[in-house]
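User:
Note these tokens:
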Amino acid sequence: MHEPHEHGDSESVAGGVELTSTGLARGAAGWQDLAGAGIGSAGEAQLLLEITRWTPDAGMHPVAHARLSECYRDYLMVGGMPAVVHRWIEGKSMLECAQVQHAMLGTLRDDFSKYSRRVPVAQVGRVMDAIPRMLGRIFKYARVADGERSAAIRQTLELLCRAKLATRVQAATGMGPPLGGDIRERVFKVIFLDSGLLCDALGLTLERASDLAGLVRVNEGGLAEQAVGQGLRASLPHFAEHALYFWNSERSGAGAEVDYLVQHGSRIVPLEVKAGTTGSLKSLHHFMALRDLKLAVRVNADLPSVTEVEVKTTQGTRVCYRLL
């Protein structure tokens, strides 16, 4: 098996800044200033410039990446609900944000039952509580509550999805576009409305998970899948159905799975999510060989890069593709 080869050793000059495959050639003093920059400081403008200038052939300085990872951790905890974001901007207090999130979850449960009298408030609560527990795993009605009828759970989940409080991530074969044309109706995952509300539902606090790596480990990567799914959902037109897809092997016990499938024009692009900086890509290799695809995306905590992958799958099939 060949190790993946890194793509791009050329140098270029953009806006007077030299870009290389090993990172941005910056003065040490400038990056030290950035490393110490707080939220709301001039360092934010530099970080934004870093993001807008980045290209697949250009590296990212480790200090900039570390600071952006901290911002990403804050985003996961705060989420995007306007009232919570406003509280964060005002005081930068995660505790105050958590109080708003907790109250908001209770209001969502109560209001949902008011507007949908067919579903008891207790049942809405049980399904909403089950979504964080099964995050990143196949959603099973039987795991929601002992003795609860599957039909009742299914109805409640469908209503939550229609209200945009939850989104199904449907298993698809990935044979080709459209992704929704060949799905396995009974096999799906579920993501929640907002990562901040999810963190509150899971009981996560900064005291229990003080950095990004610790945060995602608490929920075994499920939170990382939530964040990526949330971003994919937000990228869809507001008037379109929020349909998300993933792939897993239909063979019993195979365990092969790719976290998301994205349709880009006439192409299918698989997207693999890893909570940390490393992780096996065996399932992705298998899917790329199975569907003869040439481009895949990996989202993890490592520095962004483009890699030319040349490996053999566990079945011995040679596969070559570009991994962003």
In short: The chain has a mean pLDDT of 79. Residues 289 and 315 are 10 Å apart (CA to CA). The radius of gyration is 21 Å. The first strand starts at residue 5 and ends at 6.
